[in-house]
Specification:
Its main location: cytoplasm. The protein is an alpha/beta fold. Helices cover about 30% and strands about 20% of the residues. It folds into 2 domains: about 120 residues, ATPase, nucleotide binding domain (Nucleotidyltransferase, domain 5), CATH 3.30.420.40; about 190 residues, Hexokinase, domain 1, CATH 3.40.367. The longest helix is centred in the C-terminal third of the chain and has 25 residues.
Length: about 350
């Protein structure tokens, strides 16, 4: 198997995680330097990414970046990349002109999350349940946030290969007797219930409405924060909603573990995950993860983790910036340079 050449970057490298609400920036000064955080800013506070970098990053550095590696939610399909949940349009050629960088690379946000997986250690992750990660084995990352992101990290030909996808839209059906009673009350989209329709920031209130109807109790939870706060106050609808959420997340995580044979572990990220740790560690998530007859024994050996790193996408991009040769990232159509003739074919 032959992978595209991963030529080294010119330093300093600016890495950026661009979300619908916030943009986060960090700098990698050289191949051995630690990641240096440069700040977070609201996308709504700036006309475009160049403006945000000039105001948030450049005042904190004595040397302007020569390379920019950016993670965005969604596919990269051309020279103009609109953000799904923000007004920005990423234009790499304009960034080169505006900022004086030599090269811009734009990756998928969960591709960036996958790039971080091989480097996690210590307090970066918290294990949930049993199992032991095998070295150089496939890893999977699943992130309930605004949506439900998913990506694999596969080790092949002595190289880590990040594989992003749209796994968040797989089908999610009922399994337990309780599920079968609740599921008829979940609002369908085009006749189906995809995982993201439940396991996301937009899906959690939808699930809460179904649970409240099933429990014959009136609630008006419109945001995930309202649900987690109510659960802290022992509201029965909120508690049941998060129990069902964690159980369903365990099932989906287990499906992906089987699909990819993720003996390197399944890692949970996203904005919701750190807000509901007690529902992920009480045993129900792990029980649902392992309940994959006839492969319960296999599932028992695959570990699951909560990612505790504060900026996993940035750390993944930084790992790639330091050692691009360790990762098989397809840059075709996603790399722009001051001198395009030097881009590898």
């Amino acid at each position: 198997m032959t992978f595209q050449s991963q030529d080294p970057f010119s330093y300093p490298v600016l890495v950026a995680d661009i979300g619908g609400t916030n943009a986060r920036f960090a700098m990698v000064e050289n191949e051995t330097a630690p990641t240096r955080m440069c700040g977070k800013t609201a996308t709504a506070d700036h006309a475009d990414i160049s403006s945000a970098i000039r105001q948030t990053v450049l005042p904190s550095t004595s040397e302007n970046p020569r390379t920019a590696i950016i993670a965005v939610a969604g596919p990269v399909t051309g020279d103009t990349i609109p953000l799904t949940n923000a007004a920005w349009v990423i234009e790499p050629l304009r960034m080169i002109s505006d900022l004086g960088v030599d090269r811009v690379i734009v990756l998928n946000d969960f591709e960036a999350q996958a790039l971080a997986l091989p480097g996690y250690q210590g307090a970066d992750i918290e294990q949930v349940g049993k199992g032991e990660a095998r070295p150089n084995a496939t890893k999977f990352v699943l992130g309930p946030g605004t949506g439900l992101g998913a990506a694999s990290m596969i080790y092949a030909a002595d190289t880590w290969v990040p594989v992003p996808g749209e796994g968040g839209h797989v089908e999610l059906g009922p399994v337990t007797p309780e599920d079968f009673e609740i599921w008829p009350f979940i609002i369908k989209r085009n006749g189906r219930i995809g995982a993201e329709e439940v396991l996301s920031g937009t899906g959690l209130p939808r699930l809460a409405r179904a649970v409240s109807t099933w429990m014959d109790m009136t609630r008006d939870f419109t945001t995930p924060a309202m649900i987690t706060k109510a659960a802290e106050e022992n509201d029965p609808v909120a508690l049941k909603t998060l129990q069902v959420f964690a159980r369903a997340l365990g099932r989906v995580a287990g499906d992906f573990a089987l699909t990819t044979l993720a003996r390197g572990g399944v890692y949970l990220t996203g904005g919701i995950t750190p807000r509901i740790p007690q529902f992920l560690t009480d045993g129900n998530f792990r029980a649902a993860f392992e309940a994959k007859a006839p492969h319960e024994q296999l599932m028992h050996k695959i570990p699951t983790f909560i990612v505790r790193h504060s900026d996993p996408a940035l750390e993944g991009l930084a790992a790639y910036a330091r050692q691009p040769e360790q990762f098989a990232v397809d840059r075709r159509g996603r790399e722009w340079m001051l001198n395009p003739a030097t881009i590898p074919a």
